[in-house]
Amino acid sequence: MAPTTSATGITWDLSDLYASPADPQLQTTLDAVQAEAEAFAQTYRGTINVPGGPAPKHLLEGLRRLETLYDQLGRPAVYAGLLFAGDTAKPENRNLEQQIEQRNMAIYNLVLFFHLEWLDLRAEDAQRLIAAESLAPYSYYLLNARKAVPHKLTEAEEKLVNEKDVTGNQAWVRLFTELTSSLEFPLELEGEKQALTLDAILTLMRHPDRNVRQKAFTTLYAVLETQSQTLAYIYNTLIQDKLMMDRLRNYSNPMQPRHLANQVPPEAVETMMEVVEQNYDIAQSYFRLKAKMLNLPKLEIYDQHAPLGEVAAHITYNAARDVILEAFAAFEPQFREIASLFYERNWIDAEVRPGKRGGGFCSGYPPSNHPYILVNYTDNMQDAMTVAHELGHGIHFWLARKQTLFNFDTSLPLAETASVFAEMIVFEHLLGQTQDKADKLALLCSKIQDIFSTVFRQNVLTRFEQAAFAGRAENRLTPEQLSECWLEANQRYYGTAVEQTKGYELGWSYIPHFIHTPFYCYSYVFGELLVLALYGKYREEGKAFIPRYVALLEAGGSQAPETLLKDLGFDLRDPAFWQLGFNEIRRLVAWAEELAAV
Ligand SMILES: [Zn+2]
């Protein structure tokens, strides 16, 4: 039985998509899209990759027809996906989702040639079309698609790589997942012997009792130690595999595929990382303050996330709604209006019920419809912040509906801008309302620590990956070498403010991002610093800033992040831009110091 909370009964209304899983419109949509896909193939197959390239008008009409087709194709899939998320235990939901996925794939395959022909077109012809005036609304989309061209293998090679990957790198990733999820961490808690999972023991690093944290830390690394040879071998093999594929695909360095996917210039990322390092001293002075607050001479690694007071205040769903809408209204009335739609028109599924997917998300596709939000609301402040976060996404999707489908989707570095910004608005609003000094300090410290985890720690992780890749290019990596890279990257961050407790040298060994998505971590740094810079601008300029921020959200994915941010007056390659975010972090830490001193 799921607990009854103040959100019980708050469920979404999906009837804007379809009336029910039995709605005949579902099949009607799919049949119509299939017929259109066949007609589209009849008209366009073999007409894009032609000598001299197609006429701009022909390409434009094709893109527009495809957008309409994808939009229609998206509706049944989104409906089935939301039904499934709402009740994953119902077999009919799973079946519907699989059925629709299969039909979607078949229809998608009918029109895939259009994209492939665009990629196969001679470079000069493609360039001419990208520059054509009539194709201007799609020029960034067309240009971005072509970025994959220099890194493609032949069709036969791609097929071979795909098949070999199943027993190659994917098998090593699976081994990592199976190994780390089967590990048991024996721990005596409250007089009871328990065998904890990795997730459960990591959660204990936030326990208020220092003895518990210390015991959990020791157990965590003692168990990891027994697996360190295997974990190092897995990581070493995956690095070697990636280095080989990068060479075959003509990538000049291991981070390049990620930069291309993120649509950001590599120089901007390097500049960002250097600025983060120049600001490690903020973290160190916060850690010294925290040691004082905990009455410790110095923090150990396992003290970093020790809670400072109680932040998990009780808050009902409706009270959270009122706070969020009030905070949004104070920022910009339009934000309140859009967020109100989600509440009034039942676009949010907030109750906790058996079978419902955990966590939270906002689904904004396709742009011709409106977004939906799923959260599991259990009456605490953290859940209220999750609602604010998802509403930020919702507002972003709503505003970006001005764009056509190919220009709608935000690139990854900007994908969390509106959501984290919305959290920031609500956080500052709450802070302003909190009278009690201890509560205020607890709220502030938890925000500061969240920011540190996103900005500083993810930067450390990226530096470690760089060092590991550089080391592997020379020879096979041992656990000791990986530990050395790890401690060195961490040392710069912690300085003399936090003791790198014995055992921590294996901190690299369980991080899933290193295994699943190499060099992903810097995207978090990018996203958070951008939000802090935007927030700093807002505090500096007040209302004058808002129209430019709205324009950024309305632009969706119609341009590269660098271009969109230039319109806001931000230069990603300038260290001063990245420093703006740290000014905000400094402000928050100074505030905490001031509150703690009294
Ligand atoms: Zn998010």
Count of domains = 3
Strand line-up in the sheet with most strands: 4-6-5
Percent of residues in beta strands: under 5%
Largest sheet: 3 strands, mixed
Overall geometric form: globular
What integer is the average pLDDT?
Answer: 94
List low-confidence stretches.
none
The CATH architecture term of the largest domain is Orthogonal Bundle
Kindly state the number of beta strands. 7
Could you describe the 3D structure shown?
By secondary structure, the chain is mainly alpha-helical. The chain folds into three domains: 129 residues, Oligopeptidase f, N-terminal domain (Butyryl-CoA Dehydrogenase, subunit A, domain 3, Up-down Bundle), CATH 1.20.140; 245 residues, Orthogonal Bundle (Neurolysin, domain 3); 96 residues, no CATH class. Helix content is 65%, strand content 4%. Strand 5 and strand 6 form a beta hairpin. Helix 12 packs parallel to helix 25 and helix 14 runs antiparallel to helix 15. It starts with 23 loop residues before the first helix and ends with a helix. The chain binds zinc ion (ZN). The site of zinc ion has 4 residues, from helix 16.
